[in-house]
Amino acid sequence: MDPEADAARLRAAAAAGKPGAYRAYAELLTGRGRLDEALPWWARAADAGDAEASRTLAICHKDRGEFAEAERWYRTAADRDGGCAFGLARLLQEAGDTAGAERWYEHGAALGSVECKTNGAVLLAARGEWDTALARLAEASAEGDDVAAHSRRAIQGMLRDLEGWRAALARAEAEGDPEEAYEALRELLDPERRAMFERYPRMVAEAEALYARAAAVGGAKALVDQALFIARDDNRWAEARALVERAHERGYDGAAYVLGVWAEENGELRTAEEWYRTADEADGGHMWACFNLGVLCVRQRRLAEAERWLRATGVDGVDGVDESEERIAAALRDIAAIRADPERMPPAEWQERLPGLRGRAEEGGPDAWFAYADALDRLYRLPEAAEWYRKAGTPRALLALGRMLYEGGGAKGLRMVPYYEPAAAEGDAGAAYDIGRIHDEAGDRRTAQIWFHRAADLGHGRAAWWLGWTSEERGGDPQHAERWYVRAARSGLVPPAFLAGRSMVRRGACAEAEPLLRMACEGEHEEAPYWLAQALRGLGRTEEAERWLRVAADAYPDLLHQYGEMARLALRDPS
């Protein structure tokens, strides 16, 4: 049957309200990538009581970052459909509403959803209700859920390991041997167990309790590992740091290194340097303390000092033998590259301005303090710049401080977000984008998407580009993606201009595509000439199309081979 005739028949049936036609036509449009047109038909199907349509609508809106709308559609059928109950529970869980997620997993399981039974059981296990969780996973496994079977085996193995660690620790406690107590728990720090702690937070509390017992036997090292588990909760950061400081006071040399790493990740540059020096002195030469000191000095353009610290590691070759040595060798090569590139060295003109800026800062207020901090920042005097940015305390100053620490100072993670938030609250698109990026790098796609939406709505091109990419690549929603690409292109970005133009050519909107693809060609995007030729061909301007095909053939012959017969014609010798 002719596809267009079939589409017309389905549309007529849907318009007439025939049973099943709403969904059938919506599925056809969705399959063709025309989700904008499909959504109203999915809505009609959902309003007519089709739970699968409700679920599909919720998924579409969730992929678009429209979380409130996604929740609304899940709730229209969650009370009677296990799939919608599962989707709603997942949505709430991702938003941090664990209690709400548990309620809907429970409800979905009662409706017969084995996925709800499995996920609900995993949530119970996450807070340590092992027996109930295992019983429910056994039921779900018997119903054919492989995820349940795998989770049950993993939890059973984890509990066996936990009993083993407890028994080994008890023996060490009975003997009063702090070293044996520490060794009894070594496997807890295996990197392969990281996923276990992320999925089952109760195991974090179990590990913390075990290390507290080991520390009570007298082992200072156990205090540090106890602190590492406590530090997973940002609200207990001060408690974790105090434990490591106690380990240092009790003579554990490695504690100073951990305190240095934490200070650096928290943006406390002077404190980090002091602890790294302490670690090196206490240990008689701590390789990674020396390396981190070298990197800190490189960031501050104290290059001679940086080189001394890096060479103190014992590595001075151009290439490293293993991964650790290569990191050190690469840092040494970076020093040489910085010395050879004036653009990467402190600018002399800012050094000349510094005394005047300092004088104004001492007499002035926030604006003068910011100006002086900015000059110090440009001169790579990061600890001093941080002090003056903090003193200024304005949204602009805090944003500059956050960027300095996160992008050039070695700070990491979500602790940097508060520096960006005041500027974002005032409508700074770049600050909103940076918050989204930090959350994206931390693996929190939902929060990242919310912030990228805010940034894009404020006119940030890269945020719009990210939203377009996630809509197309992760959500399979080319129409939504195209709109974001167009918005990104308005900010002057070439790649999204190309992506928008290509999308328009594919759907036959060649006139709309032409200016975007010309912009991409001017930006030297390698695929743009071919697609501009396609757009011109679609507009009936054959001679222009052939000229752009020749441009593509001359500039990007290898790339052009991947396209079809029209491209191959352009590669032939016209003579």
Automatic annotation (TrEMBL):
Q: Per its UniProt entry, which superkingdom is the organism in?
A: Bacteria
Q: What is this protein called?
A: Sel1 repeat family protein
Matching PANTHER family? ERAD-ASSOCIATED E3 UBIQUITIN-PROTEIN LIGASE COMPONENT HRD3, SEL-1-LIKE PROTEIN
Q: Where would one find the signal peptide in this protein?
A: none
